[in-house]
Amino acid sequence: MRYNGSRSQGGRLGAGNTMISEEKLKILTESAKFDVSCSSSGSKRKNEGGIGNGYAAGCCHSFTPDGRCISLLKILLSNDCIFGCKYCMSRADSDVPRATATPEEICELVIDFYKRNYIEGLFLSSAVHISPDYAMEQLLLTVKKLRTEYGFHGYIHVKGIPRADARLVREAALYADRMSYNIELPSERSLKLLAPQKSKDCLLLPMKQLRREKEIFKEEKRKGHFLPAGQTTQMIVGASPEPDGQILRLTQSLYRAAGLKRVYYSSYVPVVRDPLLPDIPTGERREHRLYQADWLLRFYGFSAEEIVEEDGNLSLELDPKCAWAMRHLGLFPVEVNRAPLETLLRVPGIGARSAYKILEARKFTRLDFVDLAKMRVVLKRARHFITANGKFCGEKNVQAIRGYLGAGEERERAVQMSMFSDTETVRSALTGEL
Amino acid sequence: MIYFYDGSQEAFLTALLLAFKDDEAVLTSGRAQLSLGQKTRFVNADPARAKKAEARLRELDPQCLDELSTLLRSGASDKDMVALNYFKCIASHGGPVRNMLADDAVSAAVDELRRVSFEVHRFHGFLRFMESASGALYAPISPDNDIADLLVPHFRARLPAYPFVIHDVGRKKAAVYDGANTFLAPLERAEIVLSANEAAWQKLWSNYYRDVNIPSRERLKQMRGYMPVRYWKFMPEFKG
């Protein structure tokens, strides 16, 4: 079964004559669904006539039974690929149904879904269809049409195609809110082995180029937009042997040197068999720990070096903040009425929101444990690391603390921020604080 | 003393002046359990007194009147007392109290405010429009709190060319944007003639919802945590 996208120039706004077929939508959705990112945050794009605007905080429109949020319409323009990345179900030699949508079909779909408030925007990706330049050109054509002909001002996330012409990429950035190149594998060696047509350079260089161009765009105060929501990337965890320490160092450098907004992790699911790939899926616990460590990097003032040694893995038993605190018990307990914000943020169980609440509330009164409970500061883990108004309510025996910290996490997971879902949910998932 | 009032902001402010010094005051816009010998009083809105209370509160804390409007929209049965205690606290403290989170009255009010504004945020995502034959959009909702009109600015900003109706079917009222103006109107039942393609788009969306899921990673509890079942009622992805 192979659908070839016709290039008809029909279908304008509301005409409804280029409605994508159910079969095509199914193929292009199923090939796109393993991409993790779905975030629609970070853009304040205004409505300038036409339809849509940005929602800086991001917005979830539905949740699927796997617990993930649907914010953007996540779809491939084509799953017909000339590359042979071993882990990918769309790889050239895999026997799957292929489909290619026309730009008009995608545009109509976005407008009609958006109008009904099903989605916050579009996350458009593509297989390397025909050639990198051709695939990138089709992506560009689609988002340009959506912005200029269909008057769409909602959120657009476009995937960058490795090895595509830099000019096409740059032009796409003028229409997209966010772009991403997926690193997929955390080392050059694994890329060579599992994604022979890709290299570290063909993924990292375009990211750095886009960052430079965004800076120039801002300096020159040019009109319009250039990736207001920045760039993200994704790594598959467990398809290749890199330890967490190496992954987190790469993450840290992506945040610092490439200025990325988010790094996503996707625990490996064997969708295709290959002698070079493991047969079993990576535990989701590992992915969860990586996300927790990632939060420590971005919001809690930790460095990768503090979290885990380069050749080591994160503890599966303790979350990374607890593990760090257990290695630094000499720094605790800290007094909640005096400790500065940076210190409060390092207390296991106290998240960013609780830390700010404590800062505010202690201006009016000396906080004790009853006050903290009233303020909904979760004390289960924190009590071993704080004093409140001089009082300590925790355990002193190190082994016992370890036991308390590890236990019960299973139950909490249900309300914790999802491991591989998106943090669009940041607002709804403040419970996921470390 | 039990003070009954109609739930309006004006009547609340009138009652606040009466109940302010009364430590035993119970304020309610719904039903209250009357115990023997308890005195009751029905408070009607008194525009002059309400204005006076409003001016005084604005002096004490410019933000608190917006909070009052939000609190009175709450669907919680104790919202009148939560609001009364919060405003008593502002008055006796003589200024803003919202950061005194260890205070019972303040934390109850802050929680309630969060619940209402969080539901507004949720409906920005969970509301579903259907397209009528005329092109106008119609969305039925049944929110916990009285927020239909609070949803209008968000959708008006992104869909300026589309007239729409957001129908709170439980409270039998509708927030309407007619393409130029917005207003609230009582609405019992709506008869909508759907556009020719509406069913087909709903089908495509339901299919998309089904296909984007990863069945091997089922997390129903998490899903329901983020999107409680009571919000599913008007979502096409859960029909049929």
In short:
Chain A is of the alpha/beta class and 434 residues long.
Explained architecture:
The complex is a heterodimer of chains A (434) and B (240). With 434 residues, chain A is of the alpha/beta class. Chain A has two domains: 12-307, Alpha-Beta Barrel (TIM Barrel); 320-430, no CATH class. Chain A is built from 16 helices and eleven strands. Chain A has a six-stranded parallel beta sheet with strand order 3-4-5-6-7-8. In chain A, strands 9-10-11 form a three-stranded mixed beta sheet, with no helix packed on it. A two-stranded antiparallel ribbon of chain A has the order 1-2. In chain A, strand 4 (121-125), helix 3 (132-148) and strand 5 form a beta-alpha-beta unit. In chain A, helix 2 crosses helix 3 (132-148), helix 3 (132-148) runs parallel beside helix 4 (166-173) and helix 7 (244-256) runs parallel beside helix 8 (284-299). The longest helix of chain A has 20 residues, at 200-219. The radius of gyration of chain A is 23 Å and the shape is globular. The model of chain A is unreliable at 1-16 and 411-434 (pLDDT under 50). In chain B, strands 4-5-6-7-8 form a five-stranded mixed beta sheet, covered by helices on one side. Chain B has eight helices and eight strands, in the order E-H-E-E-H-H-H-H-E-E-H-E-E-E-H-H. Chain B is an alpha/beta fold. Chain B has two domains: 2-119, no CATH class; 127-238, no CATH class. The longest helix of chain B has 23 residues, at 104-126. Chain B is elongated. Helix content of chain B is 44%, strand content 13%. The interface between A and B is large, with 65 and 55 residues.
